[in-house]
Amino acid sequence: GAKHAKPRIILYDKVAIVDPVYEPVRSEYRSRPRSITPPDYERPYSYAWSPVPERRRPPPDDRAYGMPPAVPPHHRDFRPPMHEYPMAGPHGPPMHHRPPMHHPPHPHYMPRPYMPRPHHPPFEKMENKKDKFPNYLHHVLPEEDPLATRTLFAGNLEINISDEELRRIFGRYGIVEDIDIKRPPPGTGNAFAFVRYQTLDMAHRAKVELSGQYIGKFQCKIGYGKATPTTRVWVGGLGLWTSVAQLEREFDRFGAIKKIEYAKGEPHAYILYDSIDAAQAAVKEMRGFPLGGPERRLRIDFADVGPGGPFRPKTFAPPV
């Protein structure tokens, strides 16, 4: 056949020998035009390539979703670049990832520093007296409080409250020697009063028990009033370990003492000085003094200067 024939061709008076050469047929070869569509790969959407060759690639922006542009493939492992069209909406999951957060951002687009807003908890109206009068409910022991005195200030009272009613209420905690009610003009505020007890211990007990309590229709404010210096000093925190000689030795360093009124075993005593300056120095310096040891510190305040005669300390029995 033609495959094994030896054709003779004369070229310029010479015989040219021509041998045909055939390529083996490849089984995977298919005679079809080359496709411009990229090979199939998993993607959540489909798209068509635009035939316009002059189309410019849009600049990337900050959006995380979009369709990648169609680019003709150049080899079988081709993958289209992950850019997005400006007007394309989010049609599927993001095709590219933002850089990790620890990478430094572009210097021209530095993010604003996070400035947290100050947290203001919502105001809650509390009816609890501890929230309404916190300062008046913080009680300091009389031996540690330099402002402690036997006179109490009672504020936020009804304008028409009577002396008898206050004496009945405050008389539950000690012997009340005097009550002075102050009533402002109508419409200018509530009434207030000064209640003077016989001793500092009685006043402190009333302050602890009545602070923030209702007297009438208002919650009462209780605090210490202003001390009135006298030449007579009340000394509390005493006991069986105390003697008159011990009191005289500790208190005569502030000035001349006229009289010491003390009965053995009583919890308090009265010391009468010759001058107010000496009494004031004793009250200032001896408050909290550990006369009977670290756990037995003195409580001290001024007292009324009573008439002469033998000392008879008053006793108080709270009403049942």
TrEMBL record:
Domain of life: Eukaryota
Stretches with biased composition (Basic and acidic residues): 53-64
Pfam families tied to this protein: RRM_1
Keywords: RNA-binding
Positions of the UniProt region annotated as Disordered: 26-128
Single GO term (MF): RNA binding
Positions of the RRM domain: 150-227, 231-305
Ranges of compositional bias, category Pro residues: 107-116
Biased composition (Basic residues): 94-106
PROSITE patterns xrefs: RRM
Name by which UniProt lists this protein: RNA recognition motif protein split ends
Species: Harsiesis hygea jobina
